[in-house]
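Example with several molecule types.
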Amino acid sequence: MITFVTVGLLGLLSLSIPVGIVLFLLGFGIDTFFSSFPLSKGLGRLVWSSSNSSTLIAIPFFVLLGEVLVRSGLAARTYAALDRWVSWLPGGLVHANIATATMFSATSGSSVATAATVATVAMPQAEKLGYDQKLFSGAIAAGGTLGIMIPPSINLIVYGFLTQTSIPQLFVAGLLPGIALAVSFVLATAMICAVRPDLGGDRRIFPFSEMMRALVDLVPIILLFTVIIGAIYKGWATPTEAASVGVGGAILIAALFGGINVRMITEALAGTVKITAMIMLVVIGASFLNFTLSAAGMGQELRFFLEGLGLSPLWTLLVIVVMYVVLGFFIETLSLMVVTIPIVVPLVVNLGYDPIWFGILMIVLIEMALITPPVGLNLYVVQGARKGGKMSEVMLGSIPFVLVMTLMVIALIIFPDIALYLPRALQ
Amino acid sequence: MAQQTLSMLRRVNRIVAVLIGILLLICAGSVLLDIVLRKMGSSFGGTDEITGYVMAISTAWGMGYAMLELAHVRIDFLRGQVNRVGRSLMDLLAMLVLSATVSVIAIRCWSVLETTLANGSRANTPLETPLALVQIPWFAGWIWFATMAWVTFLAALALVYQGRFEQSEAAIGAFAEQDAAL
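Resulting structure tokens for the full complex:
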């Protein structure tokens, strides 16, 4: 069954059949060949129960929040404000790229949206100020990946839903690693630019009064983040409730900054429906595959398979990590996550690892997939926002950040508490 | 003819998407209102349940729009290696498999609604929502998706048959990388 699923998965995916549909097909295959009960009879009920979910409706809400915020014109102000605060470091404006991406990650649940927003406001500056475009654009692509780590994260909602782990705990668990990654990106940039000043730009030092004035532009987004995460953290609101508060807040911010009109709202709504349907097709497909796999006894087969390999839990984990890195070259984020969850998560939990911790580890690996060629969505997004220049420049500029992420993976494996400390404190 | 059909489908589904979006916005608004009311000591009650129904219905009705906008993710690693005719054939295959699978899903969804109608089932909740009320629009959404898929497949088939590969690629090609969210 393991061979069937793996070969079937890779074969059907490479035929470029939509990922969600592939998951359904595999489910049908498991039902036909490996189960003595007609599992497909339960398909309708499964489609109903997996989409009739007051938890998953947090997805469209968070998407809408991001869509509204991205279209509100807030990004340019945030970027200018953060420039005042962080560009004194060696590397100059590159740090503003990372900081703005981190800030938008903290309210938007999507990495590509984050990268696209920052790239649009930042790239013209790179040309104006004569920056070397490699590190500059790489920093946007990498900073944008934080969108799926720093809560609220749509990917973590999907992970929590499919593995039945607590979404608030996952959110809280992503906070420290997300901040640690952002800080490490800044440190790595500063170190590179201290050695090779030509890769960055001039350090920019602003008078203190200007820094304080810029702070005003940061208040709305910080406030929004604090309310959303604070309410979930304190247990005052479910993720869905917090997301609806976020939607209200984003519309209010957009209105205050004058970015709101009928056209913008309809665009945001249609975009939200499109992204939600895209996510839900793979989520429902994965739920169905999950159901057929566990009914057909995949868990037991995996256990035997592992015992047969005779690897220690740590080695097995390392094999899984390598598999994600390799698959990450070709398969994109959410799809990579969803197609592997039904197989990998039960296996990892079986080995005695914490599912919350593994969710965070998986997110770092998927962030890496976003900026590793040939298929790295954020690389394309940033390239799309540039006027000319080679794609390979963005790829080269991302390399330092891929290395930082690799260190993060190692750190998470050696010190699981980076992810687990806060969720434990929460309980 | 094929081209007109496709642009009409896109227009209609765009309207559907905005309507679904408005439904979601109203839903977010009611959750917000419910939180405020709760702080003041009262509550609508049952918001949880209703948001679930809204999610099921929105999901079903949004699928067709996402399909026409080429948002359903495909891995185009191999697809990128072949020529235009090869790409068109892969697109047609993907579309055919999608249409068939979604039809199976829609048929399976009918059995859920059928049971509900036969038993007059109500939700096992304080609201005791008659399930037919929410499952009919949900089921209709999946039928809509299946119909959209078949019509799109046939239109694209006609385009490929006429050798209009570029138009077929615009209709059922792989997603534009920049537009794919997440």
